[in-house]
Specification:
This protein is an alpha+beta fold. The chain is about 40% helix and about 20% strand. Helix 12 crosses helix 13 and helix 12 packs across helix 14. It is globular.
């Protein structure tokens, strides 16, 4: 196994591990979606829908245009293959992996289960449990409507019902049984999660070791901080112990990566035994801010020298790159970012800003333009319009001669 990696090799390992080095299939369907999900292990959820729901984008980045209804069936069917959990953060994971996170739910119960809020609202929490037991999975609005019909007093407040549901979800008593639009349906865990999964929670040390193993495979090459962040593991001694076990088992090997430092010395990193070191990666992809390739900002800076912050909560006059700028991969590097918005009423993809990063190749505008055409078609948008903000905007407009300007 390799003992050293150059910057370029580390980038290519990381992109290959995430499935961005492979050719896109002609007609991606259920099998390809499951394969891509298997590589990532997790699909982060976010409510922002300015261009597309964030959980749709990682699969577009890897597979190209696909039918989101197929993914919806995988995620929201009566007995879905995936379920929501607090994994990286709120995310979809395979149903079987529910058992891997029991230690996290146990910690939350220990911290909050007998706390002041639960004691103060014990009556409504019990009532919510009873409603779900009697009626099956429900949206919060359905529970609130029923409470109003019963003539409840102030304690039937919708916010308290929603808080009770969210706490029971974090504790593992409740699971998400799909969504209507983007509104969750909550059900008792035994009504959503298979009995054999609920009956076999994974012990803490074993779960942490398995999660570190999966993070290492998903990243290809990683530091301990990278491996901990993939699943937001806060117990660093447990992560360190898991890494040691995986090294002893021959699954991980120490590696030095050019430019990766800590305290002025080479940073400790590990290479997964199944990681490929491609000689060349020629990807073109637009990434969501919540893609595993860039979701840990420290790693994005180490891998791509790409400083990334989303600016949703930044006042408009203070934004550097735009409301929801998306990283752009061309070749084996992040070479730019574009702020995209779907004007659904006008059936137009708006490129609100476009920027280059260091090392953008001469053909980057043409490659990005082709990806934007695919993205517009995928979202059912007929035209593209490019604003004038950003040092890549004019290059991109020239590569999109049919595009409007705004």
């Amino acid at each position: 196994m390799r003992e050293t990696l150059s910057r370029g090799e580390a980038r290519r390992v990381a992109l290959a591990a995430q499935g961005l080095a492979a050719s896109r299939p002609d007609s991606p369907g259920t099998r390809q979606l499951n394969q891509a999900m298997g590589r990532m292990g997790v699909l982060q959820i976010d409510s922002v829908n300015v261009f597309a729901r964030s959980h749709y984008l990682p699969l577009f980045s890897r597979l190209g245009p696909y039918d989101t209804a197929v993914l919806d069936r995988l995620l929201f069917a009566r007995r879905p293959a995936y379920v929501e959990s607090w994994a990286h953060v709120a995310a979809f994971i395979p149903v079987a992996d529910w058992a891997l996170f029991q230690f996290r739910r146990d910690d939350l119960v220990a911290k909050y289960g007998d706390g002041e809020w639960m004691q103060r609202h014990a009556e409504i929490v019990d009532w919510v449990r009873a409603e779900l037991a009697a009626r099956g999975p429900l949206r919060p609005a359905e529970i609130n409507h029923d409470a109003k019909k019963r003539g409840g007093g102030p304690w039937w407040d919708w916010d308290v019902i929603k808080e009770a549901l969210e706490r029971l979800f974090l504790f593992g008593e409740v699971a998400i049984a799909g969504r209507r639009g983007f509104e969750r349906r909550y059900g008792l865990a035994e009504h959503v999660i298979p009995a054999e999964v609920l009956a076999n929670p994974v012990p803490r040390d074993e779960a942490v070791r398995e999660l570190v193993r999966r993070a290492a495979r998903a990243y290809g090459v990683a530091t301990a901080s990278d491996l901990a962040d993939y699943w937001r593991l806060r117990d660093r001694p447990a992560v360190t112990a898991a890494i040691g076990d995986l090294v002893d088992a021959g699954e991980l090997a120490p590696v030095t990566v050019e430019g990766w430092t800590s305290g002025g010395r080479p940073a400790k990193a590990w290479l997964h035994r199944d990681a490929r070191v491609p000689r060349r990666v020629d990807a073109t992809a637009i990434l969501t801010p919540f893609d595993p390739v860039v979701w840990f900002r420290d790693r994005a800076e180490r891998l791509f020298e790409f400083e990334y912050r989303i600016e949703i909560y930044t006042p408009a006059p203070k934004r550097r790159f735009g409301y929801y700028s998306l990283p752009v991969v061309v070749g084996d590097d992040v070479v730019g970012r574009v702020d995209l918005k779907a004007d659904r009423q006008a059936s137009r993809l708006l490129v609100q800003s476009a920027w280059w990063e260091h090392g953008a190749p001469p053909h980057a505008a043409e490659r990005l333009a082709a990806e934007l055409r695919l993205a517009a078609d995928w979202r059912g948008l007929e035209t593209i319009s490019v604003a004038g903000w950003g040092d890549a905007a004019d290059d991109l407009a020239r590569a999109l001669p049919q595009a409007a300007r705004h």
